Amino acid sequence: MREGFDIRVTLAMFGPFNAIRHDPTGIGYSYHYYERFMAALPEVATLAIDGVRAEPATITVGRYPLMTFFYLAHRADLPAGSAGARLRDWLLTPAGQAVVAESSYAPLQVAR
Q1: Is residue 55 domain-shared with residue 77, that is, in the same domain?
Q2: Quick one: 56 and 8 in the same domain?
Q3: Segments of the chain assigned E as strands
Q4: pLDDT classification of 112: cutoffs 50, 70, 90
Q5: Shared domain check, 45 and 18
Q6: Spatial CA neighbour of 72 closest among 36, 31, 95, 105
Q7: How far apart are CA 38 and CA 19, in angstroms?
Q8: Is the pTM of this model over 0.70?
């Protein structure tokens, strides 16, 4: 962990939760899925921004303003049938998108 004037940067996923759970004025940033399912702490609450709560519905449509995008990139010459190609292709199926939604991530937006 690195510390500075009124700022603390942690190097682990649970770090922000450890840093703020004992600091009544603390604030941190984490992924919705991690906060909701892995680090659920009663002493830590999520923050609504301009009245918009961090929920799957508001994140999916882009209403919640603090979000980031994830990209799946692959080689143009990825061999058909390779593990990477199978994962890519499966993620584009309804079953793959169901897992994405179940994990509280927004559905894929495919750019080709």
Answers
A1: no
A2: yes
A3: 2-4, 7-9
A4: low
A5: yes
A6: 105
A7: 16
A8: no
